[in-house]
Design a protein that fits this description.
The protein has about 140 residues and is mainly alpha-helical. The protein contains 6 helices and no strands. It is globular, with a radius of gyration of 18 Å.
């Protein structure tokens, strides 16, 4: 009888741990964001159609396979990832500097590569801002 009771208790304990620890882990990850990134402002805006078009091109080439056409994390690669890629709901709540930091530096152990200058993908800062401008324009409405 003890064995039968232990399995549900173990499951409840694991679920409770995940529910309570996830915000702590998420908060801890956000605390690593350097202060200078929080102060960053996007030099482009929703009126800049050239920036949005360039951002869309880059998103289509570099992001869509994981983050999906609709920003839902259901791209052909993203659906099979152990860590679900950011979705538009998660992304658009973040300040521009946070998004810039994640794109530039990547997120270790998640499949999110670093795209910034000097990385293998080597996007200039201006292009990172254009991707963010596109994300806000396409998915922020």
């Amino acid at each position: 009888a003890m064995k039968i009771i232990m399995k549900p208790l173990l499951l409840i304990t694991i679920i409770a741990a995940l529910v309570f620890l996830t915000p702590i882990i998420s908060t801890a990850a956000q605390k690593t964001l350097p202060e200078e990134y929080l102060r960053m402002k996007n030099p482009f805006n929703s009126v800049d159609k050239t920036a949005i078009e360039r951002g869309e091109t880059l998103y289509t080439r570099r992001c869509i396979n994981c983050h999906g056409e609709k920003g839902d994390g259901k791209g052909p690669v993203g659906e099979d990832m152990e860590v679900v890629p950011y979705t538009k709901e998660g992304l658009l709540k973040k300040p521009d500097g946070y998004l810039f930091w994640v794109i530039e530096k990547g997120v270790p152990e998640t499949g999110m590569p670093d795209f910034g200058p000097g990385s293998d993908l080597n996007l200039p800062s201006e292009d990172i801002w254009k991707v963010i401008t596109f994300l806000r324009e396409r998915f922020g409405k």
